[in-house]
Structures are given as structure tokens and as C-alpha cells.
Fold this sequence. Notes:
InterPro entries: PPR, PPR_rpt, TPR-like_helical_dom_sf. With 302 residues, the chain is mainly α. The protein is built from 17 helices and no strands.
Amino acid sequence: MRSLKEGLKFHGRAMKAGFTPTIFTSNQLITLYSKHGLIEDAQKLFDEMLERNVFSWNAIIWAHIQTQNLSHAQSLFESTPEKDSVTYNSMLSGFVKTDGYETHALELFLKMQSTRDWVKIDDFTLTTMLNLTAKLCVPLLGRQLQSFMVKTGNDSNGGVVVDLVSKNVMVAACCREGELEMARNLFWTRPELNDTVSWNTLISGYAQNGYEEEAIKMFYCMLTNGFQRNEHTFASVLSACSSLKHLKLCKEVHAWVLKDGMSSNPFISSGIVDVYCKCGNMKYAESVHAAIGMKIPFRSLP
């Protein structure tokens, strides 16, 4: 039964003829009704089932999760006589995606660990928890989760598939909290997932936390690995150059900025002027300022 019309027609005929749908058919109808937002019909059919299996419970729980009726979904979850990984993962995903249920997600994940002989913590489970870590921006939770992944062997390339957006948010959260070691570890976990945003986030984190030399090393590593630099990259590197008074690198960045056509960007140009001034190279500072006219104030010049 692929269409709602077909499902309703079949269900109507079965009821009219006095036939009781099989568990398989009822499960299909519950899934179909849920897919089209007919949650009350799905619940009614579920309530009328004389026999149910784990798929029946999973289908109706997911139906209520989709409509963000977490209280009803949780009630059904607690009433489920037999739970499998899908049951737990569905409820866990619902908690993580719904504001105000983050504590419930943590408690459920702990419960899953205590029942691991029956419930397998898989890639979906760990990815969902990584999303929760990113949502809450709690480095400690991320560190604990990473330790769990290492302990259980889920940190290998064949293990959990970390969502790139979540990974970048987690790295950024660690950088904001000054957890640079954890940020670096997260960055190098599944490095093939990293994009320009990933590199910029860690470079910026190093620069903002006083690790300017590490920021510069990461910048060169980024270029070596073939990633495209942009205005955010230059802004972080120039910040590091300013703190270190790194004239040579500033000149390199200046050349790249001209090559990439970003010299009109006031934030980048002001950063270049700032570094030249701090390095005592007023001639270069004046030339950059003159090239962009009066778009930025020349605060660094006396």
C-alpha cells in the first residue's frame, strides 16, 4: 500500500467485510497514516489491534514523535513490552530534537548503556548524542562521549558517521570554552569530513585563545591539504599575525588577499593595516590605507 487512498480503501473494505487485518497489514497502515499526518487514525488502529509486535509499537511511537507529542510517545515507550534498538533510537532522537527534553535524552542514553546486552548502541545512537552535544555546547559531555566511543571501538573509520554540521558546532563550542585539546581531537576525528568551516573554526579558536603559532601552523596545513581560504581564514590569521608581529606572514596574506580579490573587504584591509603598524612598517600601512580610500579609519597611524 503505497498511497493513502489505496490504504483507506483497503482498510474500509476489510472493516466492511468483517475481516481483522493481520499484524503486518495493520503495521503498514499505521505507518501510512502517520506518514500523512493522520495520527488519530493511526492510534485508533493501534488500539484496535488484538496482537502487536515490536514494529507496531515502534511505528506508533514514531508517529507521535513526528508531531512532537513527546509526552504521549514517552508513555507508549514506557508501556512497550519489548524494546529494540529502533525503539530506543526513535525515542532518543525525539528527545534530542525537542527543546526541553535534553535531560530525558541523557537519562535514556545512560539507560541504554545499562541494558547493552539487549540493546545495541549503534551509529545512529552515537550520531544522535553527538548532535545533543553540539546543541548543548557542553565540552564535558563531548569528552565523555568521545571516551565512550574509544572504549567501545566506535571511533574507527568504520564506526559512527558524525554529522559535519554537528562536528563543526562542537569544535566551535570547545574553542569558546578554551578546551583546545578536545577541539583538536574532535577536528582530527574522521578528518575526511572536515571542510573549510572546520579549518576556520579551529584556526580561529587557536588565535582567540592565545595559541597564535598553532593557528598559523593550522593555516599552512589547511593550504597544504588543498582547502580554499576565505575572508574568515584571513581574519583569524591576521589576528595571530598582529599578536606575534609576524611581518613576513602578513605580507604573504596581503599578497593572497590581492590575488583573491578581497582587498576591498574593510575587515581584512584594516587587519593588514594593523599588523603593518605593529611591525613598524608604516610605509606599507599607508599604502594599504590609501588603496582603499576612506573606507576604514586609520586608527593605528599616529
